[in-house]
Amino acid sequence: MNELALTLAAFLLFGTGIVHSVLGERRLIGPLLTPEKRSGLLENSKFARQVLRFAWHLTTLTLWGFAAILSGLAVSPPGQQTATTLAIMAMICLLCAVYIFVTSGARHLAWPVFLVAAGLCVVPLV
């Protein structure tokens, strides 16, 4: 059961990373960075445009990193380090869910994914 919970949490985070990058690039970052939509700092600074794009996709890499940690834990024997890491992962996912829920007014669809991932991280601890 523990391995399945961690594998499912890893799958959710990895999939969220893919959706984040693909949809974000198509619907937000790409359109925002088109020459006719640029204004202010984005109009005048190639560096600012690059930072915006890489920061967006860095989030995906971070999600994939978390997914890799969970996948590794899924095949590791349980122990104190595993329990501590899982508790941290659960807290990170919970904080992400709360932050997204509060800042988006529950409109962004990632918050329930993070909430479920947080719960799945706790399964091996109970």
Notes on the structure:
The protein has five helices and no strands. The protein has one domain. Helix content is 82%, strand content 0%. The model has no long low-confidence stretch (mean pLDDT 91).
What percentage of the residues does DSSP assign to strands (E)?
Answer: under 5%
Instruction: Detail the poorly predicted runs.
Output: none
N-to-C order of helices and strands: HHHHH
- Taking the alpha carbons of the first and last residues, their distance comes to 11 Å
Structural class designation:
mainly alpha
Query: What would the average pLDDT be, to the nearest integer?
Result: 91
Determine Rg (CA atoms, Å). Answer: 17 Å
List key phrases describing it.
single chain; 126 residues; mainly alpha; elongated
Secondary-structure blueprint:
Layout: H1 2-33, H2 41-44, H3 46-74, H4 80-104, H5 110-122
Q: What's the short story on this structure?
A:
The protein is 82% helix and 0% strand. The chain is an all-alpha fold and 126 residues long. It has one domain (2-125).
